[in-house]
Amino acid sequence: MHDLVISNARLIDGLGAPARDGSLAVTEGRIAAIGDDRRGRELGAAREQVDAQGLVLAPGIVDLHTHYDAQLTWDPYATPSTGLGVTTVVIGNCGFTIAPCRPVHRDLVVRNLTHVEGMSLDAMRAGIRWDFESYPEYLVSLERRGLVPNVASFVGHSSVRTYVLGEDATRRPATDAEIAEMRRLVLDVHGAVARVDRGPHRPAGDDRGDVRRPRRSDPGVPRARRDRSRADRGRELWAQAGCFPLGMEFTLRHPYPLEAFLSWRPAIVAESETRYREVLADPSFRAALKEEIARPGVPNRFSDKNWDHLTIAEVSRPEHRRLEGTTIGALARERGQHSWDTFLDFGLDGELDAMLDCRLFNIDEDEVRRLLRHPNAAVALSDAGAHLSFLCDAGFGLHLFGHWARERGDLTLEQAVRAVTSTVADASTASATAAACSREPGSI
């Protein structure tokens, strides 16, 4: 007897085969049989019967780009991803994880996540259960508590570096001895994982071994051939492509999208609001920003073309209410100013806490369609678990099915399901294989 039979379903296998009507049986958590009879009678008896009523039954979505590393220690469901069709998540992206971590560095590690990934410091301090230090201990800790989705992981460069260099991790280059120690830590993880037949990946951002890089359609960066040297060396190269227009809500008091500018650093290190305001008003600071944003090919989070997609959503001062719904680009043209001057003057005029809505990437849907159709594009970039105050694209798979397949018709539903199931699973396997086989010196 089966545990479950789902009948009267529209079956899509995730491998690209045409959809067909039928039924499916599950035994001990695995697909035991698939039948052509929509009523499911040919599959035999089951403890539970579900009538799908003609709805699509497909494999769970694989999300390659999440930041649930901390959240999984108190939320085994990886909320909200599992409620949006995701059954597998990859954590440790962008080089950020919470292991390995010495007890003395715990606050430093979570502060890194707070600053770079937009996570709540209070939530992490209250929620993370620090019953681990090494990365294998972290994986065992997650498994012991139980997890709802399948979880694969990168070993994050930032945590490995902090484990070895401590407070100096962001202050100076690593010595040869420290690089050797970081390398040993990563290889020890691979060895431990191999012994238990599991598969976390190598650190993100590795310039010699990483085979996947995020890819967005960026209005400020011209098309270019990138990473050709890796492909020429026989690496299998995959790009992560987002299917959402990627945007953020932020304030000038906490301007996360601007912090990728090297010229923004004086504002980051300003020790008080008075000093922060002085920096924003400084003509030399503004001149540096204008020069950097105009430099072609620099992959900032923000470009000169974004000003017409940066909207004043909600102001702080009543006399500025007329500006709500106006873009900074339009306001700058009205005032005859450079957009940086208009933007910073607006903030300094009592609007550091005004809510700004910015569409950053994937604005041109024809360009996005080109990326989604690329044979080596892995549809991902949800950033689920991070940036909660800015964005949450955990429903990217459902958006792919609804917008790109059903509404626009750029993909068939079968192709869309394959894009977020078997295709990304293959990309993930390629990454893990390359990681296990790559052993170049100095790879961190």
In short:
The protein has 444 residues and is of the alpha/beta class.
Structure description:
By secondary structure, this protein is α/β, with parallel strands linked by helices. The protein folds into three domains: 2-58, Urease, subunit C, domain 1, CATH 2.30.40.10; 62-244 and 364-437, TIM Barrel (Alpha-Beta Barrel), CATH 3.20.20; 246-361, no CATH class. It contains 15 helices and 14 strands. The strands form four sheets. Strands 1, 2, 3, 4 and 5 form a five-stranded mixed β-sheet that branches. A three-stranded parallel β-sheet has the order 6-7-8, with helices on one face. Strands 9-10-14 form a three-stranded parallel β-sheet, with helices on both faces. 37% of the residues are buried.
Uncertain segments:
196-231, 433-444
Within CATH, the superfamily of the largest domain carries the name: Metal-dependent hydrolases
Largest sheet: 5 strands, mixed
Radius of gyration, CA atoms, in whole angstroms: 24 Å
- Overall mean pLDDT stands at 85
CATH class of the largest domain: Alpha Beta
Strand content: 15-25%
Class derived from helix and strand content = alpha/beta
